[in-house]
Amino acid sequence: MSTVRWTEDHTTRSARWRSENAAPVPGRVVVADDRMKADTAYRLAREGTALLWRGDYHNGRQLLRAMGRRAGDGPAGDFEQHRQARGRRARVLGKLLVLLEDDHSLSLRRAPDVRLACTQAYGPPHEPVVVALSELLGVLGAHQWRVKGVPVPALDARVHPHYGVFSPVRGEYVDLVAQAPLPGLGTAFDLGTGTGVLAAVLARRGFERVVATDISPRALDCARENVRRLGLDGRVEIVGPALYPEGRADLVVCNPPWLPARPSSALEQGVYDEDGAMLRGFLEGLPARLRPGGEGWLVLSDLAEHLGLRTRRELLEAFTAAGLRVVDRIDTVPRHPRARDTADPLHAARQAEVTSLWRLSTWSSSSTSPAGPGR
């Protein structure tokens, strides 16, 4: 971590800089309080000046919202322009900073106790750190998800996501895995397990052994905790960081990030998969990891197709190139609120979105044409 320096009460002060988005250390920092107007704050932030907030906590949140309204969300329909606008917006909002003391406490009027949430996200405190207020709010929101959990009807239980781990709030993909016909009940692999929700669903469906993987240490810790909560730690093994575990399986499930675009931070890796690397790794490695008669289940939204990031033909060609055929495809439509939000710049694509479970097997299992169910 780099060091942030600023002048306060005629004294030069410093603290470590922390950014989960890998934002550069602010070069110029001024102290701001309740007297700061939103227009002034937005102008300074756009010019590259960071604002260390020393006013009331709730007033700081209001100022952040006001800056966000001025930044906007970018044009509707165009994904690249939308992402660029969102990136600029995030950089501007990331200029409003707060200081966490050496015990992770926040010394602002009416500030909540953020120590546990910050410890869960960042680890034990060692020294004062400066973070963006927008990031801190994300940490606090993640803490609430972790405490309350996310209801998963397929498990009749809650799953508790950790900070930086993709939350299973979009339940349609979980329901697909919970309802698709099984090729057998021996061993299953869950690649990119995240919270461990799909591994838990597979164990509850009767698999004798489930091995779940992830490349994120946060996800591995999260999955292990959820598996213990659900009483499945005797049947579900969490391993990694890796894509594939050792051995072969009757079923290999993969729900990769749905958009083949470059993530701007580690927190976006659950949504963006640069150049479709995880998707390709799953497909190319699948034939060697399936037992005879086994299947690979690819759970994938077609949102990338509606946004012009990938075509259906490219996806089908990737199946063929990997030596795989399509046994079946089970479709569902999204139920999340954003699909109905007409104010969303990407509303047209989200409204048309379909999430599919592609049942894949090797050509040696059958002579069925790969073009049939995939069309």
Automatic annotation (TrEMBL):
Q: Name one GO biological process term.
A: methylation
Key words of the record: Methyltransferase, Transferase
SUPFAM superfamilies the UniProt entry points to? S-adenosyl-L-methionine-dependent methyltransferases (SSF53335)
Entry GO MF terms: nucleic acid binding; protein-glutamine N-methyltransferase activity
The Methyltransferase small domain extends over 185-301
Q: Which CDD domains match?
A: AdoMet_MTases
Q: What is this protein called?
A: Methyltransferase small domain-containing protein
This chain's source organism reads: Nonomuraea solani
Q: Please name the taxonomic classification of the source.
A: Bacteria, Bacillati, Actinomycetota, Actinomycetes, Streptosporangiales
